[in-house]
Amino acid sequence: MDAKGTVLGRNFIEKDRLYTMTNKLRKAQVTSGWISAPNFWRRINGIQTHIVNHTSHKIVKFAHEHGCDVIVFEYLDYMRVPKGFWGAKKLRFKLRYWRKKSIQNKVEEMAHYLGIRISRVNARNTSALAFDGSGKVKRNDKKDLATFTTGKVYHADLSASYNIGARYFIRSYQKSISEKKWLSLQAKVPELAKRTQQTLSSF
């Protein structure tokens, strides 16, 4: 995304293969009670390491090829397991959180070597709000698709990524202009007053 909010390129990275392994581990524990299951954990940790390395290299390579100055991530707050998450579902949530932290740390290390900066923005509502400003979205059971209030169906992570990029530029612009001018912009675009409500349309 450039400083005008134009999306210049995008890339999807293949999702992980942890679901099968965590389900097998859960079934084994249901059958035999709690077990240490070293073979399962060795394979899970191996997949985790592969995902971190593969994803980090993909992100940095994509940014470098497109001449990016900054790679923007969501700020990962303290992990809170949502209500109703238990068993394999709870385990996958924890593994996903640990994986995100590892990916961000590895990307930061690799990006700095290439002279690319890292920035983090407020994560609240980046997925919950449609990038076009139409309001809150409805997610399907798999959480990969989002239905906007206009009826349009969009990839949930792609919509969130647009909002993440926009929040970075909005924050940068706010720092570069006077308070008086910023207040006048807020009068025209009220959602600018709250970072948790900012979307690509706000930008």
What does it look like?
The chain has about 200 residues and is mostly helical. The protein folds into two domains: about 15-115, no CATH class; about 120-203, no CATH class. Helix content is about 50%, strand content about 10%. It has five helices and five strands, in the order ααβαββββαα. It has helices at about 20-30, 40-65, 85-115, 155-175, 180-190, and strands at about 70-75, 115-120, 140, 145, 155. It has a three-stranded antiparallel sheet with strand order 3-4-5. The longest helix has 28 residues, at about 40-65. It is globular and about 65 Å long.
Quick overview:
This protein is mostly helical and 203 residues long. The protein has helices at 18-32, 38-65, 87-113, 156-176, 179-188; strands at 70-74, 117-121, 138-139, 145-147, 153-155.
Key terms for this structure?
203 residues, mainly alpha, 2 domains, 9% strand, globular
Helices, strands, pairings?
Blueprint: H1 18-32, H2 38-65, E1 70-74, H3 87-113, E2 117-121, E3 138-139, E4 145-147, E5 153-155, H4 156-176, H5 179-188
Helix pairs in contact: 1-2, 1-3, 2-3
User: How large is the share of residues in beta strands?
Assistant: 5-15%
Order of helices and strands: HHEHEEEEHH
Shape estimate: globular
Q: Helix share of residues?
A: 40-55%
Give the neighbour order of strands across the main sheet: 3-4-5
Low-confidence stretches: none
Would you tell me the overall average pLDDT?
87
Over all CA atoms, what is the radius of gyration?
A: 19 Å
Helical stretch tally: 5
* Domain count: 2
Helix/strand-derived category reads mainly alpha
Characterize the largest beta sheet: strand count, sense, and whether it forms a barrel.
3 strands, antiparallel
Alpha carbon gap, first and last residue = 12 Å
Number of strands: 5
